[in-house]
Design goal:
mainly beta, Pnp Oxidase, Chain A, six-stranded antiparallel barrel, 2 helices, about 10% helix
């Protein structure tokens, strides 16, 4: 079975992609740290239709997130299997620029989408 994949150079999300992303809060974040090693980690996120936001109670103390410099390139993968009885994968892979931000004592990472690939939606 062939899945149709759609790759764009911009991040203009379709209605289906927006709905899918707004209904989820867990994904996998891939990035390269200062040790030049690729890392992938599960993250919870919020999406406002334009930007993705990552935060957490210990984000300020996380070695990985301290490595996020302005305009760090990342990939955020949000995917799942639509059926428990048959293989129906779907998801959106977002490439973007991440930057650490602080508001008072609150530290978070904001991701600006610059490209995407989606399937199964």
């Amino acid at each position: 079975m062939t899945q149709r994949m759609r790759r764009t150079t911009g991040a203009a999300f379709t209605e289906k992609e927006l709905r899918y992303l707004m209904e989820r809060s867990v994904g996998r974040l891939a990035f390269v740290c200062s040790d030049m090693q690729a890392h992938i980690m599960p993250v919870s996120f919020e999406f406002d239709g334009s930007y993705f936001y990552l935060s957490g109670w210990n984000l300020k103390y996380s070695e990985r997130f301290q490595d996020v410099s302005p305009r760090s390139r990342i990939t955020l993968l949000v995917d799942d299997v639509d059926s428990s009885t048959r293989w129906v994968p779907r998801g959106v892979e977002i490439t973007g620029e991440a930057e650490s931000r602080e508001k008072g004592d609150y530290l978070y990472v904001r991701i600006k989408p610059v490209g995407k690939t989606s399937w199964g939606l």
